[in-house]
Amino acid sequence: MESNRLRIDSIDLSKILSKEDFSSLKIKKFKKGNLEYEDGSLTLYVFKSGKAKAMIYEDGEEFVLYFLKANNIIIPETSCAIEFLEDSEVYLIDADKFANLFANKEFSTSVIRSLKHRAELERNIIKNLVFKSCKKKISSFLIEIATTQDQKRDGKYVLDLNLSIKTLSSFIGSKRQTVSTIINDLKKKKIIEKIDKNKYIIHKLYELENFE
């Protein structure tokens, strides 16, 4: 998986923190397949290398919120788990250390902005999962990624969708065959067009917005 579900904010600690602060950070290694849950502490995870996914469970179903890779940040909490997809290294910043680093304006602003953005994304994703039909979930998902990536060709959004149907199904909480049928329907109606291995162009944005 080479990209996040959405463009998650990143923090390159080496460019923000002093050498002294940076060298004092604890690094924890995780093996592929490890699961990490909230343990009662307030700890900021900043990915140094590797990949993971943040997900929630509901009625035996897994919903992927987003993928995490180098420089992405997350604070584990009770509503979601982190599953490591590769051997990974993560900087761990506990609450006490975070308080010391808070004097660094660039660092604190980046963290607050990222966590605010993350909370908004999670609320939107969960709202879509709960309240929208499968067709509407897919159309909202495609529009959300397209507007986040903000790539255009001749005034039309180009969508870099580096996802399998299985992963997309997990994102929106629907069966793989249902998602595949809906994507094919969008292509047949020329609402979207596949222009490369993982790229689509949205020809009819209004129809996609109202696809139900």
Automatic annotation (TrEMBL):
<dbReference type="InterPro" id="IPR018490">
    <property type="entry name" value="cNMP-bd_dom_sf"/>
</dbReference>
<dbReference type="GO" id="GO:0003677">
    <property type="term" value="F:DNA binding"/>
</dbReference>
<protein>
    <recommendedName>
        <fullName>HTH crp-type domain-containing protein</fullName>
    </recommendedName>
</protein>
<dbReference type="GO" id="GO:0006355">
    <property type="term" value="P:regulation of DNA-templated transcription"/>
</dbReference>
<keyword id="KW-0238">DNA-binding</keyword>
<feature type="domain" description="HTH crp-type">
    <location>
        <begin position="132"/>
        <end position="206"/>
    </location>
</feature>
<dbReference type="InterPro" id="IPR012318">
    <property type="entry name" value="HTH_CRP"/>
</dbReference>
<dbReference type="InterPro" id="IPR014710">
    <property type="entry name" value="RmlC-like_jellyroll"/>
</dbReference>
<dbReference type="Pfam" id="PF13545">
    <property type="entry name" value="HTH_Crp_2"/>
</dbReference>
<dbReference type="InterPro" id="IPR036390">
    <property type="entry name" value="WH_DNA-bd_sf"/>
</dbReference>
<keyword id="KW-0804">Transcription</keyword>
<keyword id="KW-0805">Transcription regulation</keyword>
<dbReference type="InterPro" id="IPR036388">
    <property type="entry name" value="WH-like_DNA-bd_sf"/>
</dbReference>
